[in-house]
Fold:
Amino acid sequence: MAERIFVSRRIPEAGLGMLREAGVEIVIGQQDTERGVDRATLLAGIRQCDVLISLLTERIDAEALYAGPRLRGVANMAVGFNNIDVATATTLGIPVSNTPGVLTETTADLTWALLLALARRVPESERYLRAGRYRIWGPDLFLGTDVGPGASGTSRTLGIIGYGRIGRAVARRAHGFDMRVLAYDVVRADIDASDTVTWAELDTLIAASDFITLHVPLTTATRHLIDERTLRLMKPSAILITTARGELVHEHALVTALREHWIAGAALDVYEDEPALAPGLADCPNAVLVPHIGSASTDTRDRMARLAAHNALAHLRGERAPNPVNPEVYDLPSFRSPSGAP
Ligand code: GLV
Structure:
């Protein structure tokens, strides 16, 4: 029987081409890139494949993992892997991989695009102009907030929650705006003396920052990290940005905070119940909302697809994948190798 990779939804040709060159059979669950794969198709695909390539939109839970009697790898084309029940995969001896590194700079760029767009009210003023409402320039038309020191010469403070690859890339960009940067992470990073970043406790960072940006993974510990308590700790002038995962923010509390001006604004790329928005969020003029486009550059998506294909081919061959998220699986007696023998 030919070895088969099931790709839940169509990925860029850069990755598919690699799979074809490797001579494996490819089955794609959903060809239309604007539609999801239905659950029955996903389960049927997993049932008959050796390796699964999934996107962050697929829930690869215990039911899905148990559906694949010969499944020996899940390659998620995303850096986040909260859509996968990794603990069950490990128990079953199935390696899971992700695509870190290749999307760092692109996601940091979007973080800054959102920060600047919200601070300078770009989407709001564009909507005004397109609606034909721009009649005359005026000194108080769309007043925003400075990101750099501005006329006052006072540096603004950027608080980075999650100081991993993407958090650091966001920090590097802040230097160009002469910002004071505060960073928090559960693992305290080494910050060398030449670094202009200062380590801060979470609540201190939240209370002191003019801009707060989230770069932590979604776990049970980080779910609703931003809730009523932390929103009330922020300055009324604070701007919140998130390009990480929607469930980090209690979206209902955020809507209240935006409506009642506990904070000045929020820019979101990700949503708690994606693609749905919390009621009222879309009506908040002080919110900038984009549809999970953090890694959306042609080059980065091609690199993500190639990395997912690399990981998938390693899973297929029973080799250690370049980016395993459960590397301990390789040492388990239950590890599913191509021969079926551990
Ligand atoms: C995007 O959200 C990713 O995790 O790659």
Notes: DSSP finds eleven helices and twelve strands in the chain. The mean pLDDT is 96. Residues 56, 78-80, 103, 294-295 surround glyoxylic acid (CB under 6 Å). The two ends are 20 Å apart (CA to CA).
